[in-house]
Amino acid sequence: MRDSQDQGASRSLTAPPFDLTRYLSESIEQIVKNALASTLRTPAQSAFLLRYAKTLAVGNARRDELEAAGEHIPLFLIATITDACNLHCAGCFHHALSTGMAQN
Ligand code: SF4
């Protein structure tokens, strides 16, 4: 009896693992839905967002298939293709890396 009570207590204290990819994916879908509402007076923009939402859904389904097969496909890709940027955006990781600030 005590064992089953202990198991029940530990089960209720164990949260499911946080799925960052699922969280980001659902957040993007929600952003697109919200943006769609603001484009209702501009059919071309609505059509673009609907195509984008469909592309997101197809990509998410494919990513889930590959994840189930053991291959992780990241949701985002960040590419730094040049060192010649002359902008100074707040929070730029590239400038932080090149100046050594990222190690502080
Ligand atoms: S984030 Fe950094 S690399 Fe990107 S445009 Fe801004 S300053 Fe340039």
The coarse overall form would be extended
Main sheet summary: none
**Total of DSSP H or I helical runs spanning 4+ residues:** 4
The stretches of 5 or more residues where confidence is low (pLDDT under 50) are: 1-5
Assembly annotation: single chain
Structurally, how many domains make up the residues? 1
What series of H and E elements makes up the topology?
A: HHHH
Could you report the average pLDDT, rounded to the nearest whole number? 82
Distance from first to last alpha carbon = 54 Å
Number of strands: 0
Structural class: mainly alpha
* Rg for CA atoms: 21 Å
Textual characterization of the structure:
It contains four helices and no strands. With 104 residues, the protein is mainly alpha-helical. It has one domain. The longest helix is centred in the middle third of the chain and has 26 residues, at 43-68. The radius of gyration is 21 Å and the shape is extended. It binds iron/sulfur cluster (SF4). Iron/sulfur cluster (SF4) is lined by residues 85, 87-89, 92, 94-95.
Which features characterize this protein?
104 residues, mainly alpha, 4 helices, disordered N terminus, binds iron/sulfur cluster
Summarize the structure.
This protein has 4 helices and no strands.
Walk me through the topology:
Blueprint: H1 2-13, H2 20-38, H3 43-68, H4 93-99
